[in-house]
Design a protein that fits this description.
There is one protein chain. The protein has helices spanning 10-33, 70-102, and strands at residues 35-40, 45-50, 55-60. It has 113 residues and is an alpha+beta fold. A hairpin with a 4-residue loop joins strand 2 (45-50) and strand 3. Helix 1 (10-33) runs antiparallel to helix 2. The longest helix is centred in the last third of the chain and has 33 residues, at 70-102. It is rod-shaped, with a radius of gyration of 21 Å.
Length: 113
Amino acid sequence: MIPGGGQPNMQQLLQQAQKMQQDLQRAQEELAQTEVEGQAGGGLVRATVTGSGELRSLKIDPKAVDPEDTETLADLVVAAVQAANENAQTLQQQKLGPLAQGLGGGGLPGLPS
């Protein structure tokens, strides 16, 4: 309720909601284009993902390839992808967190409030 007993201006509320929706869409598009990297094994394995979590590339230094120990290589790949995804989540929180606060502070799905 509005102080003084007045009714909220529905047109103004609608305009604010539309602006927040446009800002959110713009931020999501920016995240989809922004790339972050994660690495493991001191940089022997590097994974690049978008801010929205799409794996774009995986680079493996030849020094990390031991035909007798593919398990370690697999672990390094998983660690690099996990690190890249953590960086993408941090980026999402930075870009979308403030917008979620404007939506009542409830946060966005997949993002801590």
